[in-house]
Structure formats: C-alpha cells, structure tokens
Specification:
Helices cover 20% and strands 34% of the residues. The protein has 200 residues and is α+β, with helices and mostly antiparallel strands. It has 2 domains: 49 residues; 137 residues, Jelly Rolls, CATH 2.60.120. The protein has a 5-stranded antiparallel β-sheet with strand order 2-5-10-7-8, with no helix packed on it. Strands 1-11-6-9 form a 4-stranded antiparallel β-sheet, with no helix packed on it. Strands 3-4 form a two-stranded antiparallel sheet. A hairpin with a 5-residue loop joins strand 7 and strand 8.
Length: 200
Amino acid sequence: MLLLGVLVCLSIVATFERVTGASAEFMFTFDDIPEGAIGDKYQHVTFSPGYYTWDSHESVAFPPHSGNQVAYSWEIDNRITFDSPVYNVSLYISVQLPLLFVVAFLDRFDGVLYQEIVPQDSKNYPITFSSPGGSLATVQVQGNGSFYQNWVIDDLAANIEPIVQVPLIGIEPMAAPVIVAICYIVIGLARKKGRGIRIE
C-alpha cells in the first residue's frame, strides 16, 4: 500500500508538470545553417529575401547572443513570417548608431499587436511578446534613416502552442503546497492501512 501511495503521488506531480509545461517551442540560432540567405531553410517560418546569416563573433558592435552567427536584413520591409500564427516570440537584437529601431509584432493582416523601441547602441537586447489568442504572424524591424543597415538579431524563439498554466486547486501559487499535502495524506493513509494488515 505504501508503494501504491508513492506511485499515486508521483502521478499527480507528473500530471501537473505536464499540464503547466505544455508548449511547442522552436529556436532559430542561425548557427545550424550555412552563412548566406536564410529564406525558407527553417521549418515553420519564412524570412524575407534580404535576410542573411553572418558570422559576427569577432564584431564589437554586433556580438552573437550564442554561437557565432546572427541574422540581419538590409530590407526596409523586412519580415519574419510564421507558417501559422504563433503564441509567443522572443529574440535578441543588437543595434548601432543613434537611430530609431522598433521591433513590431504583426497579425496576419499586418495589424500591429505590439511594438517595442530598442534602446540606442544595445547589445543583445531581449524582447518578448505573447499573444494569448495565438494571432502573432510576423516580426518586423522598423526604424528611420539608415536603420536597415545597422541591426542584427539572434536566438529567435517561437511557441506554436500556448503555454498553459492550470493550478490543481484554487490559486496557482498554492499548487505546490497542495501537492505536498495530498502526497502526505495519501502516503500516511497507505502506511496506516499497511500496519493494519495481519498475516496469519
């Protein structure tokens, strides 16, 4: 019975972790494809024709966030378009010169869902946006002047499924104590029941 109680407890914990961690994330590091045009070399996403990878590990202005390669585009109308709208996107961007740089997140009709201004002379500035309804279709870097010649991105990540967070009972911060309490009760009952068994 004690073993059964432990197994039940482990099952509860595993189920909770499985529910709260449900997601399908794709990471694009730009180190796993040859230096050159990106296009549709990655699954689930297409980069506009001006997007290229670049080995910038020796660059002071545009250091990679990881590995050696980053991505950039000299297009004013640069686009990273997902095959199907996604729920969450994160990336790191480095910019140079005192120009306006804006990372815009668009829906499939090019409506702006969110946009964030990048601080001047940033190195691997993190940007994250979540669309609860899963309507994020395109990422675009915008700006003024010669902005299109002075930025790179790295470690682009996207979730094509929502990250679901469901508490077992009541409010989510109470979930862990609830799990511990349930396990304590289950194992305690199992011990009592085990002590009550007599072998004739």
